[in-house]
């Protein structure tokens, strides 16, 4: 199952120190910096990535769509919020969707549609880790890989997380 990362654009920019500094210079520089970061992550992981921005100045009755560096970019239409666009995309992609947002209300709505909400700070850490792993290598050839550790400790269904939560955790691990 191929993951589809749906990014709440301005939300991620304003939660990241590095991207916020670029946005302080100009809104366009902030968006450009975000797209550059996401393009680098896409080269490493290969996931389908869509970033959604509020289209406040978009006076058209339709959503503005484009793509740059393999990243799909969507601006909401006039009178529509980016959150509603993200919610519709999460509903359409359901279990394949992971939504990066710090908006609790949006996170609850997409979780109800079987998409997995991810905190922007956590996602930024995963992007940094992916960059480091690409530069350094995975480390598996050095014997750093952790496998099964034998134990006598019993762990049965009473300690098992619900199936939906385990599914969400597996998706987040893929980041």
TrEMBL record:
InterPro entries on file: YacP-like
Comp. bias regions, Basic residues: 152-175
Ranges for region Disordered: 136-175
Name of this protein: RNA-binding protein with PIN domain
Superkingdom, taxonomy of origin: Bacteria
